[in-house]
Design brief:
heterodimer, A: 325 residues, mainly alpha, MetI-like fold, two-stranded antiparallel ribbon, 13 helices, 2 strands, B: 537 residues, alpha/beta, Rossmann fold, six-stranded mixed sheet, 20 helices, 20 strands, globular, transmembrane (chain A), transport (chain A)
């Protein structure tokens, strides 16, 4: 009941925020230099005034700004994100075609970094001042400091080119015609390198944060209480220290989850992963504004959705948090 | 006498290198017998908790035993490994801690936390553990135990949480119970209830009990025997009656005398021509803001509060937590804006002032805060911390710093202006806090629990300093405290607050010797170790 009301209130606010984002994005794109009609015409090899006018008319670019805005907003309200001039396809179809690949990649990386980061961080906290704990922290620092694209390129060099264990690029083996389980395995194999690459950076952050947070939690009075009960150290670490240490991790995980749509441009480019990131990159280069606006909308919507989910998870994890306080 | 349950023999615990002394405790020996309460008394830094930590095997990192033995049931606890020690904890030796607010895991339900004690020692099935937990909650007198067992700690009050802690410590009926300042963080009426509960349970279960405290009032209330510690050594050990009535050692005598006593000074207060501060019909309501989907909640922190404060007078505001006494102080210095009512400082209504006018008048009322550790910026030198107020009010920097030097001299800390707060002890920091309040040459000082965080001997010194400064600088003092003994000591008049209302006001003598309101009588009765002579006087 409490949750139903909370979700209802959050969704209501989300709609308002999303509406404002749509308007803001629309005007931001308007500020971008260059006339889309001129660029389109230029690529088509025609520059005469009549053709330009025809293009402007066809895409509604000759209308006053408020009319264009109204058309756009009412379009989005009916899930019509317009037409990509460049790709000759509706924006929605383009995005929906690419979304699964991106979510597969970023979602895997998200789970991987979260799980490994928390495990590594807990180990490092339990082994503080021991060589094994220091080693974990040194590795975490290394992953944290190394640029993503370099890790990506090197992993391709080592695991694909040199060792030939894993495919270097793509979502699946083109032309192999895998179906069913074989296809799943094939995609899985293609997923390993990009997902690991993408996960390393956040894994390093979670490791450092879990460790710091656990060390802080272990100083708290209730840990002494737990020890006075005669509980085993492993139980204290897990049940008392880790649980309390997880709260800041949830906040950070929520932030990372919000970036799942647009946050993998580099990785997708290096591994030729057919996802949203690459689509956005291409749209940017080609001034495909309708497509860009559509991608912005989806990214923003995902951030909002994950914000709501983070809030809910936070409430489950910490009973002290009540609505509004 | 029967064999002792616990016997500490020549225990010496070494502190890590670089500590301010070599040993936490040195050559300490005492016994705790079945069915007795041994009170270990001392000020902070006396090492009074250290031996208890050694008994539990919970010594802080770097502290280790270098000599002596701790005999419990024929075995030396110092020689146990972690696993053997763990099996004793909770099962045969229970412990209660000081801070009920933080000693429970905030994310676990009360029932689960009690159940853990059984789980740790492989007792009972999970269902049985919960029914035992419920029985324990009933035994420690928690209201609505069926609800409390499902509650999270934040849903309980401090006293209720301490009852949960006690239930946990009692779960496996240990032979020895260690209580480390279990009532220090509680309100006086709650403290009285918890002390009664602990004494009652100890009698009923026939446990041996080690009760660590800094408060001789508490000692008088429950101790069978007393062990007084100072700087890691035992200065006096004996039956409670002997130690309290015929203290042999000077230090014990000083500690007992330093307790703000039952002697209430004659009021010097005479009806003056014009009040300095006139507060009338002050209201302050705190609302949690309602939103689209929820209703708001209201707490009346101040409910029609009216009083006057004469020039040169010390007015005590006494009440338990949540009584609104701190909100009153914050309104007087205008950190908080009252909802309605007036706050007239020699005729000028502070409650309605804004901006520049408020800045000008605010200087005349200054505040001394409770926590000497948290109220000074750790990165600001103390001279600068004092000078900042005058500088903000337009005094040239050099002059302000010179004045800060003089003020530090005045509070007994000459020549330390270029040091940082961490270089000072709690009592010294509170002196700095006083110097800071004096820097703006105020007419009224609001002291919010200004001595509550200090040891009794330091407390006495700070109270003396305040009294002295008040006369020399002809200040008025609004002294907010939860401690009635302190209030009796230095206040001319006293307001007793409860739930945002003034339930009684009068001269200190009247309030203490002839209390009118039922709540005041309840508060007075709850003071631990209070001599019956005063109550009946």
């Amino acid at each position: 009941m409490l949750y139903a009301r909370l979700i209802a209130s959050r969704l209501f606010k989300a709609v308002i925020v999303l509406f404002m984002i749509i308007i803001l994005n629309f005007f931001l794109i308007q500020l971008a230099p260059g006339d889309p009609a001129a660029i389109l015409a230029g690529e088509a090899g025609a520059t005469d005034e009549a053709f330009l006018r025809q293009l402007r008319e066809r895409f509604g670019l000759d209308q006053p700004l408020y009319v264009q805005l109204w058309r756009y907003v009412s379009g989005v309200a009916t899930l019509d994100f317009g037409y990509s001039y460049r790709q000759q396809m509706p924006v929605l179809d383009l995005i929906l075609a690419r979304l699964p690949a991106t979510l597969l990649l970023t979602g895997t990386a998200f789970v991987l970094s979260l799980v490994l980061g928390i495990v590594a961080g807990s180990l490092a906290a339990a082994r503080v001042k021991k060589p094994s704990g220091s080693l974990i922290m040194a590795l975490a620092l290394l992953f944290y400091a190394t640029p993503l694209f370099w890790v990506a390129l090197m992993s391709v060099v080592v695991f694909s080119v040199y060792l030939d264990w894993l495919p270097a690029y793509g979502l699946y083996t083109v032309g192999a015609g895998h179906t069913g389980l074989a296809l799943v395995l094939d995609v899985g194999k293609h997923l390993i390198l990009p997902a690991t690459t993408l996960a390393l950076f956040f894994m390093a952050i979670y490791t450092r944060m879990t460790r710091a947070s656990m060390l802080e939690a272990s100083q708290q009075d209730f840990v002494k209480t737990a020890r006075a009960k005669g509980l085993k150290n492993s139980v204290i670490q897990r049940r008392h220290i880790l649980r309390n240490a997880l709260l800041p991790i949830i906040t950070l995980a929520g932030l990372q989850a919000g970036q799942m749509v647009g946050g993998a441009i580099l990785t997708e480019t290096v591994f030729a992963w057919p996802g949203i990131g690459r689509l956005m990159f291409e749209a940017l280069q080609q001034r495909d504004y309708n497509l860009l606006l559509g991608i912005f909308f989806f990214s923003a919507a995902l951030v909002i959705v994950f914000n709501i989910i983070t809030d809910l998870v936070y409430r489950l994890a910490d009973p002290r948090i009540k609505e509004g306080s | 006498m029967s064999d002792p349950v616990l016997s500490i023999r020549g225990l010496t615990l070494a502190l890590p290198k670089g500590a301010d002394r070599r040993y936490a405790v040195e050559d300490v020996s005492y016994d705790v017998h079945g069915s007795e309460i041994l009170c270990v008394v001392g000020e902070s830094g006396s090492g009074k908790s250290m031996a208890a930590n050694a008994v539990m095997g919970l010594l802080p990192k770097g502290v280790r035993a270098t000599a002596g033995e701790i005999l419990f049931d024929g075995q030396d606890l110092l020689r146990l490994d972690e696993k053997q020690h763990r099996k004793l904890r909770g099962l045969r030796i229970g412990m209660i801690f000081q801070e009920p607010m933080t000693a429970l895991n905030p994310l676990m339900r009360v029932g689960a936390q009690i159940g853990e004690v059984f789980e740790a020692h492989n007792r009972l099935t999970p269902a049985e553990r919960q029914s035992r937990a419920l029985e324990l909650l009933i035994e420690v007198g928690l209201p609505q135990p069926e609800k409390a067992i499902r509650a999270y700690p934040f849903e309980l009050s401090g006293g209720q949480r301490q009852r949960v802690m006690i239930a946990m410590a009692l779960a496996l009926e240990p032979e020895l119970l260690i209580a480390d300042e279990p009532t220090t963080a509680l309100d006086v009426t709650t403290q009285a209830q918890i002390l009664e509960l602990i004494a009652d349970l100890q009698r009923r279960h026939g446990m041996a009990m080690m009760f660590i405290t800094h408060d001789f009032g508490v000692v008088a209330e429950i101790a069978t025997r007393v062990c007084v510690m100072r700087e890691g050594r035992i200065v006096e050990l004996g039956a409670a009656r002997d130690v309290l009535e015929r203290p042999q050692h000077d230090y014990t005598r000083a500690l007992i005398e330093a307790i703000p006593g039952n002697h209430i000074p004659e009021s010097r207060y005479l009806d003056p021509p014009a009040p300095l501060l006139e507060v009338s019909h002050l209201h302050k309501v705190f609302r949690s803001r309602g939103g689209l989907f929820k209703s708001s909640r209201e707490v009346h922190a101040l409910d029609d509060v009216s009083f006057i404060l004469a020039p040169g007078e010390t007015l005590g505001v006494v009440g338990e937590s949540g009584s609104g006494k701190s909100t009153l102080g914050r309104c007087v210095v205008r950190l908080e804006r009252p909802d309605s009512g007036t706050l007239a400082l020699s005729g000028i209504d502070l409650s309605s002032l804004k901006g520049e006018a408020l800045r000008r008048e605010r200087r005349r009322v200054q505040m001394i805060f409770q926590d000497p550790y948290a109220s000074l910026n750790p990165r600001t030198r103390v001279g600068m911390a004092i000078a900042q107020g005058p500088i903000a009010n337009g005094v040239p920097r050099d002059k302000a710093l010179k004045q800060a030097d003089q003020l530090l001299e005045l509070v007994g800390l000459g020549g330390v202006a270029d040091r940082f707060p961490h270089e000072f002890s709690g009592g010294q920091r509170q002196r700095i806090g006083i110097a800071r309040a004096l820097a703006l040459d105020p007419e009224l000082i609001v002291a919010d629990e200004a001595v509550s965080a200090l040891d009794v001997s330091i407390q006495a010194q700070i109270l003396e300093l305040l009294e002295d400064l008040k006369h020399r600088l002809s200040l008025s003092l609004l002294f907010i405290t939860h401690d009635l003994r302190v209030a009796a000591q230095i206040c001319d008049r006293i307001l007793v607050m409860q739930h945002g209302r003034i339930v009684e006001q009068g001269s200190a003598r009247e309030v203490f010797l002839n209390p009118q309101a039922a709540y005041t009588r309840e508060l007075l009765a709850a003071i631990p170790g209070r001599e019956p002579s005063l109550a009946s006087a």
